[in-house]
Each structure stands twice: as C-alpha cells, then as structure tokens.
C-alpha cells in the first residue's frame, strides 16, 4: 500500500516485481477480477491494488485453514512414516520456491539451493513460509519490496495454490467454461490413473474441475508451465491443480496428478537446467530457451550480457548457442542432421584405417591443337596394347591405364572449359592436370587460361611439352615462358614437373605416367572402398536401345550392380555396369569410371551420384532435390556481385574477392592488376585468378562462375555467348574504360559504399554493313540493327573485334533520308557518331542508355 501511496503511478510490472511475481500473473489476476488491464505497462489504480490484495487475502485465509488441515495430516503421517513426511514437506516448500523462481527468473540457482538443502531444511522452510504467509494474510499488507516481500510473496504464492487447489481453486474454476474443464479433467484422470490407486479415482472430480481451471488460467502463464511440469513429476495432486488455478500459473492439465480428496503434497525439487543438450543446427532465442529450460527473457538477458541484443524470434548461430549454453553451465552436443537430399555437400569422414590408396584422376588441358586428344589417345592405345589386349575400347568419358601395377584414371574430355564447367556445377572430379604445350608453338592464350583454371581449382600441374619430334621444337623456350606463370621446372629450382613427350611418336609417355604416379604418391589420394558409392556423372545420354545411360566416376565406396542411387535429380537402380574396356563389372571401386544403365531419366554431366539403401528412398530424395532446385532457381543469385560484396564481407563469407581481368592491351591489364592487388579493405583482398588480353569469352565466365569471381572488362566487351552465359550463371561483369574507375568501384564495393546511381542498359546493336563518306557530314555507317533498337538520343560505342574503339553520342540516325527517333531490329539505318569518322565495315555499334538504379 505504502508503495502505492508513495508513487503516483504504479505499473503492473512494478507491482508484480514488488511481489516477486511476473506481470503475466498479475495481469491474469486483474483480468479475473474484471479489472481492465492491457499489458505490463498499464497503471494500477489504488482500487485495483486493493482488489488484488483482497484476492490474496482471501486465498491466504483459505490457505490458513487448509494448511492447518494439511499440517495436521502431515503430523499424523510423521509419526507413522517420518521419511515420507519429510519428503512431502520438502516438496511443499519447494513448490513455493518453484513458483517464486518462475517469477523471479532465478530458477537455476534457487532451484539448486533448494534441492540441496531440500531434505534437512525442508520443514523449516515450509514453516517459515507458512509463517510469512499467515502474517501476510493477517496484515493484509502488500509486500513492501526487498527481501521481505520476496518471502511474503513466496508465501502468498505458495499458499495460494495449495488452498485453491483443494477447494477454492475448484470453486473458482467452476465458473470456467465447462468444456475445457472436462477435457482437461479427462486428461487428468488419465494421469491420475497412471499414478495408480483408488485414491486417484477419488480425486477425479476435483481433478476435472481444477484441470479445467488450470487450462484457463494457464493462458497467461506459459512460463509457469515449465515449472508445473516439474511439479507434475512429483505428483503435486489437487493442491497443485488449485495452485495453478488460483495463481494463474498456467500449467497444462497433465501437470497435475490427482491424489484424491485429501491431497497430499509430495514434490521433489528438480533443477530444471539440463546437464546436456543436443543441438541440431541454428535455433531462435525462444527455441534455445526451451531447450535450456529457461525463460526466453532469461536467455535474452544473458545474450545482452554477452553483447548481443536479441529478440525471442531471432536466429542464433551455432557459436552463440554454444556460448550461451556454456554460460548456463550446460554441455552441448552438436548433431547436425545429414541432409540426405544435399548429399554432395556432406563430407563423410572415414576412419584413417578404412582408407586405401585409389588411382589419381587426371585431366588434360592446353591450347588448341597442342595435342591434347592425340596425347589421350596415345596413352590409351599404348596401354591397351601393352596390358589389356582383347578388350574393346569403349568411350565412357574416362579411362584407366595401368603402369607398374598402378592405375591412373584419365578424363576423356580434354580442355579447361569442360573441366571448369564441371567445377562450376560443384563437381570436384580431378586430382591433377596435365598442361600440354606444343614445343614448337610455346605458351599461348589458352595455355594461360588452362593454367589459371587449374590453379583456381587448386590442383597440382604437370607440364607435358609435346611435339618434341618436330624439328623446330624448343622445350626450353616453353619452360622459360612458363616461369612467368609460376611454373618453374625442378632443374631450375622450382617444383613443377616437366615431361617432354611426342604424342604422335608415342615418346615419353611412360615418363609422363610415372610422374603422374609420383605426384599421386606425394598427395596420397585415398578413399574408403567399403561403403556405399559416391561419385560424379561424367556424361549421360538417352540411348535408343538401352534407355538412359550414365557414365560415372566412382569416387568413394564401391558401386555394385543392383544398387539404388540418386544422380542429380534422377534416381534408378544399377541394371548393368561396364568399364572402359567394354567388360561387364559386378562392382566398381574408387576412381573407376563405369557406364551404367538403369536410370529413369538422363542426369547432367557434373551431377553428384550417391547410392541409397533402396529405390524408394532414392526416389524420394531425387524428388526432393528437384523441388529444391526449382526453388533455388526461383530464388536469388548466390554469386558474388559488386553490389552485394560488402554484405558477403560483413557476413564473414569472403576473405578474397576473386577477379578475372580482360583488357584490350597487355599494358592496361598489367596496370589494372597492379592497382587492384594493392587494395585491401577490412582484411579482404583482391585475388586475380585470371587475366589476359582479348574480349571476355565464355571460358572466362565459366571460370568466374566456378570460382565465385567477378569479371572486369577493360576496354573490351563480352562476346554474345559470354554475355548469355553470364546472364544465366549470374556472373557480374563490370566494363570500364578508365583504370581509376575500376579501382574506385572495387574499393567502394569492398567498403560497402558502392552507390550505383546509374547503371548502363544496353538497348541494341547495329552491324556496320557499308560505310559512306560524305563531305561536311562525315562518315555515315550504313547499318543493320541486329538486336534491340537504336535510339537517336542513346549513347553508343563502336566495337571492333570485341574491343571498344570509341564511345560517345550518336550524332544522327536516319531511315533513308529521314531522321528517325529510333530504329528497331531487322531494319537498316544510317548512323553517324559524334566526333568519330573512322568507322569500318563489320564494326558493331552498341547503343546504351544510363538508367538510375535503386539500391
Ligand atoms: N608432330 C607432332 N604432331 C602432333 C603431336 N601431337 C599432336 N600432333 C598433331 O597436332 C594436331 C592437333 O592435335 P590434337 O590432338 O587434335 O590437338 P588438341 O589439343 O586435342 O586440339 P583441339 O581438340 O582442337 O583443342 C594434330 O594434327 C596432331 O596430329 C606430336 O607429338 N608431334
């Protein structure tokens, strides 16, 4: 009271706090007393306070009567069964503390304390609170705060339940809707029966009613539900029921076990903080709190102390959960469920002793016509003649050769584009690469591309210097040139293996194979053959006679005929299996390429493959994968773009910004490389994974897609195929003409300040078919619009062989002799460029407009 008087406004939460109760409890009581209340901030008028206090008083006076009876009963029992009695008293005591705890959010400590001191001090505790209770009831005073109120409230709260549980609770419940009462009551009976005995049945009536009560009152008190659950185990009986009913301590019906007319309190205090929890991934604050048996508010408080502001629905990452649990003294076992439908992302950890050496898988790359195919054929045919005579060579996308009783698997599709396309699809098939360089031609643009693709994949490289049979072969020149790309031969102090070969003359092949084995030995390629197979689809097609046929590289485990599997979004059962020599196999171990039949559909090259226990499961997983893929295709782009770069950096996902640079001349490429390498922002640095002179081609885009890189075009454009691939793969291409702009753009993106107010929108292309020189006017380009449209007021750039020659305004646009505002695809027109006359046939005029872009 005095508090109320001393303060102008008493809020619900303040009042609740002074009673060591929760706002919810007070709100429930206010509502029950038909006192209007909105939330914990509602002001409690004097009248409301008095009503609540009367309410408590009423309960207490009833409690006094009941506890008299209870004590009598306990005393009676004490003489007969001292041990049990003590336990009961402890539980009565604990019940109060329990409720207190739920109000004060201090469950763990007090819970433990109580439990520890439970038996010996139980009775005292109860008496003490009994005394307080009575005092409280007698004086009718509101708690005054400090420790006294706490005890009082402990008493009052504690007593409330006991009383009401027996009679008043039932009575007040009586006014509650019958239905829920019955429903809950029914459930209570069930629980009562479980705890057994005629006594239970005796308590059914009360149980029903108070069960209903609990339900209703429980609405506001989810938190207390937790408490009651513990009371439950100890079989709190009718008293508990009433308790929940009166105090608004919302327990579920099954929190209470009816014990009959003369209820006994027998509860054991349980520290509800679990010793250990199992975490299966990220959770919200609410979920974590539940798992830890804590109030969400308690968890939120703890999070604030740990420096994180969080709401109940906020997701917590694994680290935070671990930290939080640690702070509560709870051990955590992390069990991330294997998402079987995303099996390609799950790494299987095998015991070291289960691993055996497997053949290395090799890809051959190099410049056009340097002899990749000839080398592959030479290795295969030499080997077939040497060891596998009699077999009919089958083209199954890969083949195996044997040298010194050791196998090597070669992928049959040479070239870095195919390799990186696979990689872009997430397939890591190759262990090492052979870069073929013709000794008479030296390092060429695609040699460099191949090297960069191999490096981007982090693969060891062996250089095969081919065509050494040619008179103008100069292997040393090749070695010299390759030092520029950090491929330094061993004899020059480097660590790259160079082997001179002639694919045509079949010279040096054994050396090459031995070197491959050497690299394999150093890298220790291993797999566990004794488990279900996993691998990658190398090729697949629909065969008229055999249906869907897939060529697979088994990478781990052993594939057997009859195995059910998932390949990409398809599934099937291995009907027949042949190897590259055309032999039928019953099983295929790691690094073995095989062709299988038995698929329902045709998977894609690069699709992951995995065996499952049965076809039904395989089908379910394939279907789920198909759905997920559809969804992710609809979803947003996951590749990095300059626009979302900062977010990636902030999320800690990126340490390197992978960049591919294409420029018009070597000088500008080098200058750009130098400048970009110097940028470092917040620990993220630019990593140039490939750079060369020339238009941006498809291979660049595929490499960017596989390496999550952005492509910078300096005075160059993407060719059509590259543009289309970039669109479909969502690769970010940035085109510039000024080095400073590139640096600024990247730097700003890294700092999160990128503010693309304008974005270029290419509206069309025109091909120059004729050129007319007209005095006074200048050069008129007679054009055909090949895509989109050209507008008079658009800006234009002139492109010759993929290189930007000029950028400026369109001076005039004419259809025949008339000025035109715009000319659409398929029509001819005459274009003059403002300030540029050196237009040539076959040049391309690209028209674009600058548009504002919302960020
Ligand atoms: N003299 C000589 N010619 C070779 C050698 N290896 C390959 N060639 C020839 O070089 C040409 C190109 O060989 P390919 O094997 O088709 O070259 P590639 O690298 O596979 O070419 P693409 O598939 O077009 O990229 C063919 O005419 C081969 O006969 C060699 O060791 N010596």
Describe this protein with a few key phrases.
binds guanosine-5'-triphosphate; six-stranded mixed beta sheet; alpha+beta; single chain; six-stranded antiparallel beta barrel; 855 residues; 26 helices; globular
Short description:
With 855 residues, the protein is an alpha+beta fold. A six-stranded mixed β-sheet has the order 9-10-8-11-12-13, sandwiched between helices.
Radius of gyration: 40 Å
Number of strands: 35
Distance between the termini: 58 Å
Main sheet properties = 6 strands, mixed
Roughly what fraction of the amino acids lie in strands? 15-25%
Mean pLDDT: 73
Structural class, by secondary structure, is: alpha+beta
The largest sheet has its strands arranged as: 9-10-8-11-12-13
Task: Assign a percent range to the helix content.
Answer: 40-55%
Our count of helices gives 26
Bound molecules: guanosine-5'-triphosphate
Low-confidence stretches: 1-7, 68-269, 385-390
Overall form: globular
Organism: Paenibacillus medicaginis
Keywords: Cytoplasm, GTP-binding, Initiation factor, Nucleotide-binding, Protein biosynthesis
Protein name: Translation initiation factor IF-2
InterPro entries: EF-G-like_DII, IF2_II, IF2_N, P-loop_NTPase, Small_GTP-bd, T_Tr_GTP-bd_dom, TF_IF2_bacterial-like, TIF_IF2
């Amino acid at each position: 009271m005095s508090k109320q008087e001393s303060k102008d406004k008493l809020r619900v939460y303040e009042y609740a706090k002074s009673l060591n109760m929760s706002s919810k409890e007070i709100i429930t009581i206010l509502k029950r007393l038909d006192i209007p209340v909105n939330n914990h901030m509602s002001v409690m008028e004097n009248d409301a306070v008095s009503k609540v206090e009367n309410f408590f008083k009423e309960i207490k006076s009833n409690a006094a009567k009941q506890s008299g009876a209870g004590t009598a009963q306990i005393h009676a029992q004490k003489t007969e069964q001292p041990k049990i009695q003590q336990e009961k008293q402890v539980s009565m005591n604990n019940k109060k503390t329990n409720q207190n705890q739920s109000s004060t959010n201090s469950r763990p400590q007090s819970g433990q304390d109580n439990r520890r001191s439970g038996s010996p001090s139980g009775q005292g505790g109860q008496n003490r609170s009994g005394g307080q209770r009575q005092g409280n009831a007698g004086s009718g005073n509101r708690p005054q705060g400090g420790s006294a109120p706490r005890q009082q409230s402990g008493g009052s709260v504690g007593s409330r339940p006991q009383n009401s549980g027996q009679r008043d609770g039932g009575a007040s419940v009586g006014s509650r809707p019958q239905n829920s009462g019955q429903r809950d009551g029914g459930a209570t009976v069930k629980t009562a029966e479980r705890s057994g005995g005629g006594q239970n049945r005796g308590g059914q009536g009360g149980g029903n009613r108070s069960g209903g009560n609990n339900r209703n009152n429980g609405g506001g008190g989810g938190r207390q539900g937790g408490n009651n659950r513990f009371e439950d185990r100890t079989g709190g009986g009718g008293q508990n029921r009433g308790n929940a009913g009166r105090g608004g301590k919302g327990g579920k019906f099954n929190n209470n076990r009816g014990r009959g007319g003369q209820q006994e309190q027998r509860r054991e205090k349980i520290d509800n903080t679990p010793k250990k929890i199992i975490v299966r991934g990220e959770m919200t604050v609410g979920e974590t709190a539940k798992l830890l048996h804590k109030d969400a508010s308690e968890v939120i408080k703890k999070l604030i102390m740990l420096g994180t502001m969080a709401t109940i629905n906020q997701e917590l990452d694994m680290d935070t959960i671990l930290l939080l649990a640690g702070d509560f003294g709870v051990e955590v076992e992390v069990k991330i469920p294997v998402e079987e439908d995303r099996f390609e992302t799950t790494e299987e950890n095998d015991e070291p002793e289960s691993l055996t050496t497997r053949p290395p898988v090799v890809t051959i790359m190099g410049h056009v016509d340097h002899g990749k195919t000839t080398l592959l054929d030479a290795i295969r045919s030499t080997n077939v003649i040497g060891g596998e005579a009699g077999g009919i060579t089958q083209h199954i996308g890969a083949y195996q050769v044997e040298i010194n009783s050791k196998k090597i698997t070669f992928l049959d599709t040479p070239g870095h584009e195919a390799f990186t396309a696979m990689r872009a699809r997430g397939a890591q098939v190759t262990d090492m690469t052979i870069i073929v360089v013709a000794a008479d031609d030296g390092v060429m643009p695609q040699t460099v591309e191949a090297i960069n693709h191999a490096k981007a994949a982090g693969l060891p490289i062996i250089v095969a210097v081919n065509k050494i049979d040619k008179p103008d072969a100069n292997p040393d020149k090749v070695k010299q040139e390759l030092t520029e790309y950090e491929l330094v031969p061993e004899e020059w102090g480097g660590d790259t293996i160079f082997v001179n070969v002639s694919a045509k003359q079949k010279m040096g092949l054994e050396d090459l194979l031995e070197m491959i084995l050497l690299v394999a030995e150093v890298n220790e390629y291993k797999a566990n053959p004794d488990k279900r197979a996993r691998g990658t689809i190398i090729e697949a097609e629909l065969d008229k006679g055999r249906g869907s046929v897939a060529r697979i590289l088994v990478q781990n485990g052993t594939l057997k005929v009859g195995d059910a599997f998932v390949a990409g979004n398809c599934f099937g059962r291995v009907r027949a299996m042949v190897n590259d020599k055309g032999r039928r196999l019953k099983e295929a171990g790691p690094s073995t390429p095989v062709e299988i039949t038995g698929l329902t559909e045709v998977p894609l090259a690069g699709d992951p493959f995995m065996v499952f226990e049965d076809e039904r499961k395989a089908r379910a997983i394939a279907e789920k994968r198909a759905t997920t893929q559809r969804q992710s295709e609809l979803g947003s782009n996951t590749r990095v773009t300059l626009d979302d770069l900062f977010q990636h950096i902030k999320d800690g996902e990126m340490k390197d910004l992978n960049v591919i640079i294409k420029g018009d001349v070597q000088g500008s490429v080098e200058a750009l490389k130098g400048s970009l390498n110097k940028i470092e922002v917040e620990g993220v640095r630019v990593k140039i994974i490939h750079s060369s002179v020339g238009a941006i081609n498809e291979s660049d885009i595929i490499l960017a897609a596989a390496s999550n890189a952005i492509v910078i075009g300096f005075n160059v454009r993407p060719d059509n195929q590259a543009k289309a691939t970039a669109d479909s793969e969502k690769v970010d291409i940035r085109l510039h003409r000024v080095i400073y702009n590139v640096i600024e753009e990247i730097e700003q993106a890294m700092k999160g300040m990128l503010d693309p107010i304008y974005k270029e929108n290419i509206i069309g292309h025109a091909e120059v078919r004729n050129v007319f020189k007209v005095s006074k006017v200048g050069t008129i380009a007679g054009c055909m619009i090949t895509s989109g449209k050209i507008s008079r007021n658009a800006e234009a750039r002139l492109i010759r062989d993929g290189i930007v020659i000029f950028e400026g305004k369109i001076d005039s646009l004419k259809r025949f002799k008339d000025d035109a505002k715009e000319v659409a695809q398929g029509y001819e027109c005459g274009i003059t460029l403002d300030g540029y006359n050196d237009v040539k046939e076959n040049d391309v005029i690209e028209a674009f407009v600058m548009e504002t872009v919302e960020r």
